Amino acid sequence: MVLNFTLLFLTAMIAGGLAYFIPSWEERYFKLVLVFAGSYLFAITVLHILPELFVESSNATKMGLYILLGFFIQQILALLSTGVEHGHIHHPSHQHAANVGVWTIMIGLFMHAFLEGTLLGNEAGLTAHDHDHGDHGHHHHHSGGNLLFGILLHKGPEAFALVAVLMSALKKRWIFVLLLIFSLASPLGMLLSNYLYESKILGGETLNVFYGIVAGGFLHISTTIFFESSPDHRFYLNKVLVSMLAFGLAISLEMLF
Fold first, then answer.
1. pLDDT tens column, 193-226
2. Residue 18: CB partners within 8 Å, gap ≥ 6?
3. 193: Cα separation from own chain's centroid
4. 75-127 pLDDT, tens per residue?
5. 202 and which of 61, 122, 143, 206 could share a cystine (Cβ 3.0–4.6 Å)?
6. What are the boundaries of each domain within the chain?
7. Helix H segments across the chain?
């Protein structure tokens, strides 16, 4: 749990720091990183998260509805954050519009990051916890290394894009404060999820509802990255190769772990 907390926090802080200290960067390379992260996120959602959710759910149709709900919720969050979570970098022009935009971006992005962090709760010793309390119906393995790696891959470009947007609207000290708040969002979501389960406030089936919502959000983000990487619907060999590499890595790690 401590390791996951540290990795989530430092990944966001370091990636945001890169955007802060390297204001000149190649957009094409950033887009390739986005494609890799989006492809990997899509792969682990299909290979890892969705199969577990449907296996553990007592009603597969309801789980499908929760996933669709998550897709829709992420659409709303993307309107608030203006798509920063899938690497959309824009620069507010008006000072008033910039101030309003910063708060909506932070609200949408914090909620998204907080929700994805819940997938990493219930980590070490959960299977033993289930065994000790006779709850054999819900062995949550969502916190595996493959999933953590996918979230970290997504977290980096997300933090980079956030700082790149904020630099055109805020003073530097406030950029650091907001980056710090964002970097804590996923770790806090992870801790809350773990606490709710360990304290038996929420059971495994209820938590799976949240996981389904997060999985729907992942599908929205990853597919949006695909669409935005080729807005003119042209064939780009480098992006196809990057996607294939990400898919191959996700499949290999899923089979190994």
1. 888 888 888 777 788 888 899 999 999 988 888 7
2. 160
3. 15
4. 898 888 777 766 656 555 444 345 557 888 888 889 989 998 988 876 533 33
5. 206
6. 2-20+44-256
7. 2-21, 27-44, 50-56, 60-81, 95-118, 126-132, 145-166, 172-198, 204-229, 237-256
